[in-house]
Description:
2,3-Dihydroxybiphenyl 1,2-Dioxygenase, domain 1, 2 domains, four-stranded mixed β-sheet, 2 helices, 10 strands, globular, VOC_core, Glyoxalase, Glyas_Fos-R_dOase_dom
Amino acid sequence: MFKENKPYKNMSNLSPFHIAIPVHNLSECRNFYRDVLNCEEGRSSDHWVDFNFFGHQLVIHYKPKSEEEVHTNSVDGKSVPVPHYGVVLPWDTFQTFAENLKQKDIDFIIEPYIRFEGLVGEQVTMFFYDPAGNALEFKAFKDMNQLFAK
């Protein structure tokens, strides 16, 4: 039984999260997550597909296209889409992943760049959309122990 929400000091103890997101074109998004992001495909049906999303369970679910406008908040002088989701990667993995995405001609909302350079929480981040318009952020901290630092 879960008793309290204590910050994780040892990230290797993290439990995988589960997230289900809407997509209006299951086939196009299936190809994106499998072939562009290199996520291993798991179970599926005519209306959803499971992926191993960097050790977490991502499920894309069919939903008719929405005409909802994208909301953004200003962060570090850039327009960050809300909502968004993603993964915090190791620094070197982020660099390799970002280069791989550039080679696949990903259209970045926010190109990979270093935020808070030389400060607490120094990180590299990037944002892009999947084919259904879901915003993704991938980031890496120079010092992973500063993930929740104030």
